[in-house]
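Problem 12. The chain below contains 374 residues. Write out its predicted structure in token notation.
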Amino acid sequence: MHTFDAPFGQGDALTQRPHRAVGVFGMGLLGGSVALGLRERLVAHEVHAYDPDPGALEAALAMGAADRVHAAIGPWVSELELGVLAAPVRALEPLAREVAPFAAPASRWIDIGSVKGPVVAALEPLLPHYVGTHPMAGRETPGVQNAYAGLLQSAVWVITPSARTAPADLAAIDALVAALGAHPVHIDPGAHDRLVARVSHVPWVLATALNLWIDGDPDRERLLFLAAGGFRDLTRVASGSPRMSRDMVLENRAEVRAALADLEAVVLRLSAELDDPEALLASAERGKRTRDALPIVRRSMLPRVFDVVVAIPDRPMELANLLAVFGRHAINVRDVEVLRIRETGGEAIRVGVGSAEDRERSLEVLGAAGYRAI
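Solution.
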């Protein structure tokens, strides 16, 4: 199976009532966000949280991410209608072996790991009604203390059924994902690993490599001082959990190596094009077209926005004054971001509006109000 379309579950019990009890095994960023989503969206009457770290369980309780917490696997697992394995990728199979003896035969199980081929092959024989999944959501700050239900809102959530997946189980997990505010997309496990190696795992390798490259330079301190927004954006993912990132790429090493080999050929071609300005320009234009075709809003399936970048002075009330211009002219603002870079000569604010016409009108009214906007 390899499709990018998945219907939401229809007619499953989940669409009629919440689960009686759901267990989330692993109180990290994603596990905590799933637990918060289950409670905030009334998907479960009771959420159980498991983690061997007492500090993570204490934080989960304090944040309202769980009704009951457990530091050990035991008979309480048999109470669950649904189990969500949210441990690091290399810990998923040992965790599944630990919970399997207690899992109720009618219970459903998913994992949310970022590698699917070996994980699905290992977990499917161990857990009843298991379906592999991977929510394409995250941030560079790990830990349950940084979890929030909105992390999953409008995210693409990959579901990786196999030939053994029962249609009823697949429909139930589609419905679960939709109930958490995300969009289910079906991709077979092997295809998932190839794709994610290119858009997630290799970017982490490159971010790490760039930081190591700077760290080993004799001019390290000056380089760090000069590093601007572009370098920070390129290397942001290296700020995540090193252990979890390491495990992620190790479990997908074959696809990561294949992707790195493909990328090496592209880098070598670009190196050769340093002697061919027209060829380099053509590559740059092609790269720009590709990047412009992949806005974050399209990936997360949110309505498309049209960006206006505005320079404003760095002083109180300036953002409020800026947004008031849009309000006076009845231009609907869908998104606002304070940019980390300062390419416009002051604080740069990205404002997203709903149409190309609104963007053109925004440029006109902002110019008339004395703002520099692009």
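Discussion. The radius of gyration is 23 Å. Students who got a different answer should revisit the alignment rule from Section 12.3.
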